[in-house]
Amino acid sequence: MGLSGFEDRYPHELSGGMRQRVAVARTWAADPDVILMDEPFAAVDAMTRLTLQEELTRLCAGTGKTVLFITHSVDEAVFLGDRVVVMTRRPGRIKAEIEVKRGGSASRDWESFTADPQMQGIAERVLRMVRAERSVEPGESAGAAAGSNA
User: Fold this and answer.
1) Do residues 121 and 103 lie in contact, with contact meaning Cβ atoms separated by under 8 Å?
2) Angle at the Cα of 148 (from 146 to 150), degrees rounded to 5?
3) Which residues, other chains included, contact 112 with Cβ-Cβ below 8 Å and sequence gap of 6+?
4) pLDDT tens column, 118-136
5) Distance from C-alpha of 11 to C-alpha of 16, rounded to nearest angstrom
6) Partners of 97 in the beta sheet?
7) What is the pLDDT of residue 137?
8) Residue 139: C-alpha distances to residues 3, 9, 135, 143 (Å)
9) In this predicted model, what pLDDT tens digit does every residue of 54-111 receive, in sequence order?
10) Intra-chain end-to-end CA distance of the chain, in Å
11) Hey, which end of the chain has fewer CB within 10 Å, N or C?
C-alpha cells in the first residue's frame, strides 16, 4: 500500500493520502466479495488522487474484487470503471449504463487513459449525459441546479 516505514505512526501523523491507503487496506483485509467506495479520494490532492486511483485498479485486477465506486468525477468513473452508471436528478434513477471496453493491456494508467481516443469518447458521452441532467428547468434558479446531485 506504499506505507513502508510508517508502521509505528499514529493516524494523526499520516498524510491524507496515507490515511486513505490505510482505509483501503482495512477494507481489503476484511476480504469482502463486494466493496462500496463512496467518493474515497475526494479529500486528497490531485496527484495523490491519481496515484490512489492507479493503485485501486491494480488491487482490483490482482484480487478480482467487485468495487462499486461512487464519484462525481466523469474522468474518474471512466478511468476506474468497467461500467459507468449515470443517474438522473431527483429522484435518483438509472439514466444509462455504459460499458467501458478497454483494448490491449489490462493495466490502467492515466497517461494511457488520456491518450486513448476511445476512452476520451466514452468520457465525453458520459459528460453530455450528466450535463443534460444538470440543466436548469423552467422556474428553477441556476444556484439550485448547481447544488443538486446528478
Assistant:
1) no
2) 105
3) 105
4) 999 999 999 999 999 876 5
5) 10
6) 85
7) 59
8) 52, 54, 12, 12
9) 988 988 888 888 999 999 999 999 999 999 999 998 888 999 999 998 765 556 889 9
10) 32
11) N
